[in-house]
Design a protein that fits this description.
This protein is an alpha/beta fold. Helices cover 44% and strands 12% of the residues. The longest helix is centred in the last third of the chain and has 22 residues. It binds pyridoxal-5'-phosphate.
Length: 399
């Protein structure tokens, strides 16, 4: 009851503040990003000019098909893959589901190796696949800072050659990065297939997927300044996944349903921008993250960073635990009242808040409220200062 009241209050205040033009500092870019105006333009133009269904054989349909295939070719070139290896989906959740279910039906996979830190878009389908298809799911142990223990992975692979390994490229809560090439070599040595949820990394780096040695990947446009509701799966040539959605011959019979043409055009444009401006954006965002770390260390030395924040970590995500003097339920509403949007990374399992399965698996202190801060190209150093000031006020008020 207390939670829902405080959330309601938070919502009302946020709406009022938005109406009053109060400052908004958006630091939740791992959840979703603001669309790039050039993406909006590309989508708007397509909406105005293209009316046909890409599957229709008349001129309007063929015009739409040309645009669709142009977007596929452009994305394939950016990702170093062949156009036939890309299947458009509604986003990362669908792509992960389609790959995992499709591998278990089509490839007759009987063992899947994953980690307890995966996104629910992987963990939940694996739970269902295990229950419905009898596939055995093995969880790799974690080492310090929450990286998967590769010796343990080797051991499970030795016991179950030919398994499917599903490990995310960057963790969406801590930003921890997977050494994908090392994992891929281990997989190849044991005849295993390698799926990686790349939702947090596609569009963050100039990415050649085959160079990473990945057989299946999932990506999502709204994480890199593209539209919500558009994503893709990469299925390496020679690997087969049984279609997850049936009822039409679209996407070379791999995903039925009329394609989200405008979303796909926006996604291709967003990936173009991400690749062209990649290094510049990376430097800007990485500088914001390190400025935030330095400021927090100076002003709130009692804060703890979760995961491998200083080394093998995505340049855009920071996860931290606050001193236990602050009521975990109050952190997001209080920051929200100051106009700051961040995510809770709480490990707290009290009441209806089940907390973060990631932090729990990493044995992070459950009594300390945690936060995920995630930056984008639209953030500024001034916003980082504003956030740190708001957090300092919150903590000094809690003492
Ligand atoms: N995988 C990861 C790592 C994510 O962070 C997310 C979204 O937060 C998803 C999958 C789901 O992607 P989508 O929102 O496109 O369904």
């Amino acid at each position: 009851m207390i939670v829902s009241l405080s959330l309601l209050l938070h919502w009302e205040l946020s709406v009022n503040f938005a109406g009053m033009g109060k400052r908004e500092v958006y630091l939740d870019n791992a959840a979703t990003t603001r669309m790039d105006p050039a993406v909006l333009d590309a989508m708007h133009q397509c909406m105005q000019q293209i009316h046909g269904n890409p599957s229709s054989i008349h001129a309007s349909g063929q015009q739409a098909a040309v645009v669709l295939e142009g977007a596929r070719r452009s994305m394939a070139r950016r990702l170093g893959v062949s156009p036939a290896e890309l299947v458009f989906t509604s986003g990362g959740t669908e792509a992960n589901n389609a790959i995992l279910w499709g591998c278990c039906y089509g490839q007759k996979v009987r063992h899947i190796i994953t980690s307890p830190l995966e996104h629910p878009a992987v963990l939940k389908p694996l739970e269902l696949i295990s229950a419905r298809l009898g596939v055995k799911v093995h969880f790799v142990r974690l080492i310090q800072d929450g990286h998967p223990d590769l010796d343990h992975l080797r051991k499970i692979l030795t016991d179950h050659p030919g398994a499917l390994v599903s490990l995310m490229h960057a963790n969406n809560e801590t930003g921890n990065l997977l050494p994908a090439k090392t994992v891929s070599r281990l997989c190849k040595a044991h005849g295993a297939l390698f799926h990686s949820d790349m939702v947090q990394t596609i569009g963050k780096f100039v990415m050649d997927i085959p160079q990473q040695g990945i057989d299946f990947a999932a990506g999502s446009a709204h994480k890199f300044h593209g539209p919500k509701g558009a994503g893709f799966m990469y299925v390496r040539a020679g690997c087969f996944v049984e279609p997850f959605i049936s009822g039409g011959g679209q996407e070379r019979n791999q995903r039925a349903g009329t394609e989200n043409l405008y979303g796909i055009v926006g996604m291709a444009k967003a990936l173009d921008i991400a690749c062209e401006k990649g290094e510049e954006v990376k430097q800007h965002v990485a500088a914001l993250k390190s400025a935030c770390v330095i400021l927090l260390q100076e002003r709130l030395p009692e804060i703890r960073f979760n995961g491998d924040a200083h080394k093998h970590s995505l340049f855009s995500i920071l996860n931290l635990s606050l001193p236990a003097v602050v009521d975990p339920e109050m952190v997001l509403p209080a920051l929200g009242m100051a106009g700051v949007a961040v995510s809770s990374g709480s490990a707290c399992a009290s009441g209806s808040n089940r907390g973060s399965h990631v932090l729990r698996a990493m044995a992070v202190d459950e009594n300390a409220p945690s936060l995920r801060i995630s930056f984008s190209k639209y953030n500024t150093p001034d916003e980082v200062h504003y956030f740190v000031d708001a957090l300092c006020n919150l903590i000094s008020g809690g003492k």
